[in-house]
């Protein structure tokens, strides 16, 4: 769970001469590190000064006083050898991209090797005729979009973290984004994968063709598997044409987040599917005002950002604007590119807020059916009041994905950095509500460490067992990102 950083032995790996390595121990890790160095694999890091930056992700989860090593891979062959050595010595391997995840999926664990893929950054090919590109996992997502636009195409998934997250991390969690309401999530744009299995074998799943149904869909299985089934070392991605015509952006301010949510649901009665539909609550608007000297919060406590694109963008925006006005919104519509960027910066900043704050954030990202969204927002607000926890709301509201973020003052953390019990009780209440409304515990962040406690409740015993069996089939020694996703 989130905690403040303290002293630790991170990366303090020492070899014991003549010792027989026991799997899962410091001796096994030391022996594996020695083998990898002898093999000339990547860049091998030990010692707290060099390994500490790899200990955690953006979830705030503190792994505590753990010993681990880091291998920075420089090639697919490096990844294969790390997995072979891992299997030989019984050493866990934790694949890592940019460490931007919110669920603790890339956090270090005792005796593990953090396998950094951040140096595998090649865009190895773009095929404009077939509408696809081939990339390595360490490529920053926004760089794929830029490369595609140079040939008149686009990579449609647009996570708010696109400027800092890697495509490998996006694939690991099946990341969503601002444009998913119209263009789908990461899985919808992945055609094929290159994956290194637990024993070091390299397999190729999927097809370069748009269609293909040969055998089971292992590509879709690996997307969202959080590095527990294999290590993604390459991806073939679908590219789409850049929409013709202009983009129209609507900013609609409402008195409350609940009002804004109700208006977002009403938009779909027009038959228009917007290319973006995002919600920002009043707390975030206040923080944006502090950041940029604006006055957004004075205009309301709920902001909808709506976009339409394509040749019919203007007509569609007009239809949506009318609904928003009737719903009580204060409306701004623009097709100016600079103003559009300013408005989108508001949403992106709320996800990447790095301003120093005396708080820990527990990021929830459940999703519910669209017709239950208003009830879910009410439940979040009631939960905040019931447990005395500040909960802020951001949402990919168009596809029902709500980020309800619990803000806990650092002064309320336990001596070991633990969250107060009322924070977990509040999270339990929201998760229970999301499941009752027919939703899911995570829309795009994944399970990682922080959501393991709720997975069996959503899946049920039979499906939970089946999924654990799949894990064992792909990873018989349970060495790939162990302790993540499944509680035991």
Automatic annotation (TrEMBL):
It holds the Pfam family FAD-oxidase_C. It comes from the Bacteria. InterPro entries: FAD-bd_oxidored_4_C, FAD-bd_PCMH, FAD-bd_PCMH-like_sf, FAD-bd_PCMH_sub2, FAD-linked_Oxase-like_C, FAD-linked_OxidoTrans_Type4, Oxid_FAD_bind_N, Vanillyl_alc_oxidase_C-sub2. Residues 59-242 form the FAD-binding PCMH-type domain. This is FAD-binding PCMH-type domain-containing protein. The keyword Oxidoreductase applies. Gene3D superfamilies: 3.30.465.10, 3.30.70.2740, Vanillyl-alcohol Oxidase, Chain A, domain 4. PANTHER family: GLYCOLATE OXIDASE SUBUNIT GLCD (PTHR42934:SF2). The keyword Oxidoreductase applies. Its cofactor is FAD. GO terms for molecular function: FAD binding; oxidoreductase activity. Keywords: FAD, Flavoprotein, Oxidoreductase.
